[in-house]
Specification:
Elements: E1 2-5, H1 12-21, E2 26-29, H2 32-37, E3 40-43, H3 49-58, H4 62-70, E4 75-78, H5 80-84, E5 88-89, E6 103-107, E7 118-123, E8 125-126, E9 141-146, E10 148-152, E11 158-164, E12 166-174, E13 177-180, H6 188-199
Parallel strand pairs: 1-2, 1-3, 3-4, 4-13, 5-6
Antiparallel strand pairs: 6-10, 7-9, 8-11, 11-12, 12-13
Length: 201
């Protein structure tokens, strides 16, 4: 069973629907016992960094997430869920993220012809041997909706990047922790294939 962590963020139901499409048993929950017992855990979300961390702490989920990661359960952060895994974000100065991975979340700089938030399809430049991307060709299009982007401290954890004015670390992997800035659940057949790869880890 896959647990989807419920912390009042947007876009959780679309992840649930994608997993159901894959015939994967799934449950949206904030119950610590259910999350800790799950075979894999997803932290999705759309929203503001500081507000999301406040909710995670309010619901007592920070320690649960650390336990899940610590015991080796496959864990996937999506969009805001990726950002929360890192230390801090320019969106919410002073708000501390989970700090499970090292890096900063920065505002996408304004540029000629660039609309912010970045909404739409961009190609991925795959690098390394990311397990989410098994069988996925380089330059695959995926769907993004974000105004802030990851700058990972360790380039070795970056498994895919894209360009939108700046180079954006679009997906990372470290041990049992995976994260995507884009939305695999909204990225057509390729995104479903990535979720299938996660389920099979």
């Amino acid at each position: 069973m896959t647990a989807i962590i419920d912390y009042d963020a947007g876009n959780i139901r679309s992840v649930e629907k994608a997993m159901q499409h894959l015939k994967e048993p799934v449950k949206i929950t904030r119950d610590p016992g259910e999350i800790l017992a799950a075979d894999r855990v997803i932290l999705p979300g759309v929203g503001a960094f500081g507000d999301a961390m406040e909710k995670i702490r309010q619901y007592g989920l920070e320690g649960v997430i650390r336990q899940v990661v610590g015991k080796g359960t496959p864990f996937l952060g999506i969009c805001l869920g990726l950002q929360l895994l890192f230390e801090e974000s320019e969106e919410s100065p002073g708000a501390k993220g989970l700090g499970i991975l090292k890096g900063r979340i920065r505002k996408i700089p304004a540029g000629e012809g660039l609309k912010i938030p970045h909404m739409g399809w961009n190609t991925l430049e795959l690098q390394g041997d990311g397990r989410l991307f098994r069988g996925i060709p380089d330059e695959t299009f995926v769907y993004f909706v974000h105004s802030y982007y990851l700058e990972a401290e360790d380039e070795a954890i970056v498994k895919a990047s894209t360009r939108y004015g700046v180079r954006i670390h679009a997906s990372v992997e470290q041990g049992n922790v995976f994260a995507c800035q884009f939305h695999p659940e909204k990225s057509s057949a390729a995104g479903l294939a990535m979720l299938r790869n996660f389920v099979e880890i």
